[in-house]
Amino acid sequence: MKLFDVYPLFDINIVRGKGCHVWDAKGEEYLDLYGGHAVISIGHAHPHYVEAIAKQVATLGFYSNSVINKLQQDVADRLGAISGYDDYQLFLINSGAEANENALKLASFHTGRTRVVSFAKAFHGRTSLAVEVTDNPKIIAPINDNGHVTYLPLNDTEAMKAELAKGDVCAVIIEGIQGVGGIQVPTDEFMQALRRACDDYGTVLILDEIQSGYGRSGKFFAHQYAGIRPDMITVAKGIGNGFPMGGVLISTKFKPVYGQLGTTFGGNHLACAAAIAVLDVMKEEGLVENAAKVGAYLLEELKGFPAIKEVRGRGLMIGLEFAEPIKELRSRLLFEQKVFTGVSGTNVIRLLPPLCLSMSEADDFLSRLHKVIG
């Protein structure tokens, strides 16, 4: 059987990782400034994480959600404490797209409405509702194109208010920082106005923190720079440091009903062990604070490169926009300088390293980048 060929692949077979470094099958070492799409939060093969998963899988890897799983409450307690959302509820699933699906479903149950506001360049996943609120017609199949969504320009307060004033919007879904869209940052003022407008018109505010959350921005959630509290927050990627897991943090205005939501694998014992280990390491090693410090340093230094048209982001979620397409530049970084980076569109390089990136590793990256672009 052949693999379904939907991924353009680099001819590199990564077989091992440690911290912010990975090695291929030939023994070549690479500096990882991408973390597998912002998934690696605490670093590759962290010993505490490895030990926690090994111990759990040797004890019990999985049982169904029809019985008590105290590990789920442990995740909820730790996540509530570190994020400042200990008064919210937690529903655990398997991925970011699934988190957004469930958040949108809850919003519709709550309001009885079906229309959603999303934003230009948004990316929220590839499943039914998640892909419909994603601003990319190329990946929205006809069966998903159901006319539920209005896309608005990001940071356009007047357009947002006018749309919500129609009184029929079920939910607004917005990324804390747009990732696939090119590291576009909502202004604090826009986020504050959005929160007020959602309150005024009975609209649910969903913050997609799947890529921008879990400490990546230098705060636990990127929206916390604006001092707002959304009705729901969706998380995934960094939650399990590579183990597939997602979640929805849910305000107490939503009352759970038996059978309303469900999942086979979500919140399983092994996933919870991974999530608990991640939160342990984040707290003990101060990784949110490290992301803020090292990220601020990188942002400032990168602004000194004349070849870069614009530097955007917060913490260790950074976009480098160039005047010309960056395909060759990214290739040279990878094959000549042995640095993994991401991309957004044709002109933006994305940096999403593990949150344990050190100052010396940041300087190492800057040195390698300098060799490519001067």
Automatic annotation (TrEMBL):
UniProt keyword terms in alphabetical order: Aminotransferase, Pyridoxal phosphate, Transferase
SUPFAM superfamilies per record: PLP-dependent transferases
GO MF annotation, one: transaminase activity
Cofactor(s) essential for the protein: pyridoxal 5'-phosphate
Keyword Transferase: yes
CDD domains assigned: OAT_like
Keyword Transferase: yes
Domain of life: Bacteria
InterPro entries with a match to the protein in the record: Aminotrans_3, Aminotrans_3_PPA_site, Class-III_PLP-dep_AT, PyrdxlP-dep_Trfase, PyrdxlP-dep_Trfase_major, PyrdxlP-dep_Trfase_small
Membrane-crossing residue ranges in chain numbering: none
Family: Belongs to the class-III pyridoxal-phosphate-dependent aminotransferase family.
Name used for this protein in its record: Aminotransferase class III-fold pyridoxal phosphate-dependent enzyme
Biological source species: Bacteroides caecicola
